[in-house]
Amino acid sequence: MSLSKKTIPLYQLAHARTGDKGNRSNISVIAYRPEDFSVLLREVTVEKVREHFVFRNPTAIQRYELPQLYALNFVMDDVLDGGVNLSLNLDAHGKSLSYWLLAMEIDPNS
Fold it and tell me: Considering the entire predicted model, what is its pTM?
């Protein structure tokens, strides 16, 4: 009998703030508690975020670490259908993408 890993959605450990400019989305993930920041560092990687957003086909993702704020900031290029002013798909912008990121499953105990 194998034991499966227990995962949780990211929103149980963090909240998010977001912004967008043109075709670039900026999403910050902020730990609720300082002791959970190490989990964010380990679990919320560029590779995992790229995989989670594969349906948006980002051309580049950068991660910035803000340890004094217990936060990570992700900048994703070409995920907004050309930008808010060019797209008819308003649900793909700003807060919608941050909510999608917060739904990502992470393993807090690995």
Answer: 0.84
